Amino acid sequence: MFVFQESVDLVLKMADSIFSVQRQTIPKTIESSFAGLSSRYEVFRSGEIEKAKTWLRQWIAVNVKTYLKICDPYFGLEQLEYLSCVPDNCMVFVVTTTKGAGMNNPEDIDRYWQKISARAMPFTQFTVVSDKVENRFHDRVIVSDGCGLDIGPSLNGLGRSQQKILMLSSEEAAEIEQKYLRDLLDSTVWLMEYGENPNVFKVGEYVPVK
Fold first, then answer.
1. Cβ atoms 166, 72 nearer than 8 A
2. What is the pLDDT of residues 125-163, one digit of tens each?
3. Can you state the angle between helices 28-38 and 2-22, rounded to 10 degrees?
4. Threshold 0.90, pTM exceeds
5. How far from chain centre, in Å, is Cα 205?
6. Inter-residue contact 80 to 57 (CB < 8 Å)
7. Nearest residue to 177 (alpha-carbon basis) of 204, 133, 139, 127
8. Phi, psi of 197 (to 5 degrees)
């Protein structure tokens, strides 16, 4: 998955360079191949903060069904806004570090949520580890039912600089969930392999489907 990502990035950079210099001379067959790769990306220019946030909120509202998993070492209080887009019966799991502003205190999270949303906060389990193990977060990803996003830089920088978001296939999302997220959300793995005792707590309520 990660080798594929690097290959796609290289091809996209080559395509951008070629298109900007001599787009009119590119054979249609090659151009269509580049378009197929590019269609999996959503690209935001520097300063397109609201555009990027709106796109992500809409993606969550359309694609997330029963659960949402977020891996981002800088996930903080301001990023809670994205949880307001999930269905009522959705369970959320967030793994982050102490660099995420306000993420170590459930009361702070609850108070902030009440300021930004009139609905009850969805059931959310937070796993917060020390920023000393930040290098363990080699990918910032969002995964849900058969889909996901590789968000590149962290959510707190969305739209502040040029950024592209990769829309994962169902196979890629499943691979990341099994080979990457599963361990990051497991407090036993953190303790046994990294000597890290994460702060794990739950906020919000689960609303079952009637």
1. no
2. 999 999 889 888 888 999 999 999 999 888 998 888 888
3. 130
4. no
5. 22
6. no
7. 139
8. -105, 95
